[in-house]
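Below: protein 1.
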Amino acid sequence: MSYEKEQTPSLMVSSRIVARASRKPVPPGGNSMKTRFLITSTLVASLASTSFAWTYTNLHPSGASMSFGDGAGANTQGGRANIGGVIRAGMWTSTASSWVDMHPAGASISEVWGVSNVSQVGYAHFGTTTHASLWTGSAGSWVSLNPSGSLGAVAYAATATNQIGNTYMFSTVLASLWSGSAASWVNLNPTGSTASEAWGGSGPNQVGYATLGGVQEAALWSGTAASFVSLHPGGASSSRGHESDGSRQVGYAVVGGASHASLWTGSAASWVDLNPSGATSSTAWGVLGGYQVGGSMIGGAQRASLWSGSAGSFVDLHSYLPASFSNSVARSISTDGVNYYIVGGGLNTATGRDESILWTQAVPEPVTTLTLGAGLLGLLRKRRSRVAR
């Protein structure tokens, strides 16, 4: 099931433009000019509001007692579903009926956490050991990434060539990087760190945290332990990176005792606090270009959130869900060039279970903006010629 709801801020902006225009002296032919301006403002409002329109789709698979979406790549989403009393890794291609069960034979539990255009990663539990896991679209494609000597591992993110996560070894947890096999394991734990975790990455970059001097500090790597850069902002008591798109990093920083969704561009000094007005806490989980997604605590409930670079840009994705959802979170964002896809989950009080959720929006077409711009330019030229006469 799906439906669309449109935001109103763009209409309010257009109203303010019209209000300003109405205060100016009316030139010769002004009535027709005003009519054209109002028509143009309506077109602007229509385009702007469409760009804020998100379509909700429930990805919950048939027969599941719980499901949740955690990763997105192009038009593919990954996550888990409880089927027959077993939490099973799986993936979708934007519809509930497209669910593919990727639970490996012999595992007691499995989950997909990250998705790229070519692979899926997560973990599978066998006996007493958790295995960082790599798939390429089916249960039979499963590969264990656990390095020799480890007590267990988990993979949280996938790129075209790498897998990113954590390995439990030497009585601690170590941020880890793989390139398709257990033997390819790279220890990212920086010198002086007592523990570290890697949660996401893109291209050459990995993000997570490293514990230095007893403080968890958001971390950025580029393939080696020596490449470590602390993103920890001044004044924060702890911080963590969750995802990167190659040039931007998102996660959270604890400020004044509360987690604040955070955005960086490669350094601690670049930190941007995304915590929206009215939120008691927030966390950012995914990033793509100018968009960041996550969750914000507002009115005592977590609400899936979208930002575009600042706290003031906050969009409440939860408002696009049926009223039966009491809370929600957005975990990842991707695009196939046609649509943007945001995957996550929420508690549906009508069914009493967590259900995987997909928000979709069409990628704006540049030609539409150019066409409108040409129209506006034409109106301005006509106005100048009338004033000149």
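Below: protein 2.
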Amino acid sequence: LSARPAVFCPFVARPNDVIPDRKALGMDPATAAAKGVYAVRRASCDATVVLQGSAVMTLFMRDVLKKLDETKTKVNVFYVASAELFDLLPESEQEALFPSNLRQHAMGITDFTLPTLWRWVRSEEGLKKSLHSFKHGAFLGSGAWEQVLVEGGMDGASQLAAILDWCQVKGK
């Protein structure tokens, strides 16, 4: 807000989502979202997943993260909260938060369309493996949000399969 002062009156209707215990999960605090991008997981490897959108993040936290931990899958995971907030940071801080070399080894999972990932996923291979709402060549139907994500192949089981495949492709 210091960049563009404004009156902010938040009201967001969300389903009854379970709020994760960030500290117990080793995640950055919720205030990290103010920088636009934050790490959900950092690993000693190149394989990286970029999450964008509250629906895919909700399912990732609920259905995927624990299974990745159980299988000891090493993968960097970043959540994009706001490209605009990230843009306000100095380049050195952007690089520290989300190193450009990891973008070369990233695949994405987004509630939106593929072009929204171009900035974060910097390889053709990563873009082809990414999950997005138009991946199957048609816009998704309407209905309960979880069912729409199943239709789009972005549900928890599909996310897990795509991430495990990506880690195998990256040799990790």
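The two ends are 40 Å apart (CA to CA).
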